[in-house]
């Protein structure tokens, strides 16, 4: 059976998701002037390194990097999920703690009624997570 996607492509897809998310967050803050809240900063702290570490992994064909990208993307996905919940679910919004000068419950964009900046980050983290898990599973299959 022929594979639809290989390790190289999965690693590149994870890199592309991280790069697009990084450039998107810089666009929203530096060009559109949207000031990030505290939770957005935590998501950025986890997202930005993907552009560097995954680019190096692609160049060196180092598939073991997927261990680290899996952990970082899982943590980022958890933070993004919580952020989406406090923006969109009234129960969480009412219980949300104050998180600095910019409220984490605010949403600068609201495309189609549910796509916000934290939702975009969540999508990127999930893409990176799925690709990283695929690379890990493929690595185990290749080493046997």
C-alpha geometry: elongated
In terms of quaternary structure, the protein is single chain
Level-2 CATH architecture: Up-down Bundle
Separation of the first and last Cα atoms: 18 Å
Q: Look up the CATH topology.
A: Bromodomain-like
Q: Report the CATH C-level class.
A: Mainly Alpha
Pattern of helices and strands: HHHHH
Helix count from the secondary structure assignment: 5
Mean pLDDT: 88
Tell me how many strands there are.
0
Essential attributes:
144 residues, mainly alpha, Bromodomain-like, 73% helix, DsbB-like_sf, protein-disulfide reductase activity, chaperone
Task: Please sum up the structure shown.
The chain is built from five helices and no strands.
Explain this structure.
The chain is mostly helical and 144 residues long. The protein has a single domain (9-139), classed as Up-down Bundle (Bromodomain-like), CATH 1.20.1550. It contains five helices and no strands. The chain has helices spanning 7-31, 38-60, 65-88, 90-95, 117-143. The two termini are 18 Å apart.
């Amino acid at each position: 059976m022929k594979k639809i996607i290989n390790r190289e492509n999965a690693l590149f897809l994870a890199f592309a998701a991280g790069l697009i998310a990084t450039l998107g967050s810089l666009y929203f803050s530096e060009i559109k002037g949207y000031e990030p809240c505290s939770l957005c900063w935590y998501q950025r702290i986890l997202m930005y390194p993907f552009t560097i570490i995954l680019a190096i992994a692609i160049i060196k064909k180092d598939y073991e990097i997927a261990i680290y990208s899996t952990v970082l993307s899982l943590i980022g996905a958890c933070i993004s999920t919580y952020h989406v919940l406090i923006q969109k679910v009234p129960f969480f919004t009412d219980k949300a703690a104050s998180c600095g000068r910019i409220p984490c419950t605010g949403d600068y964009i609201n495309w189609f009624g549910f796509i916000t900046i934290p939702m975009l980050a969540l999508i990127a983290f999930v893409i990176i997570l799925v690709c990283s898990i695929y690379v890990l599973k493929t690595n185990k299959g290749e080493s046997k």
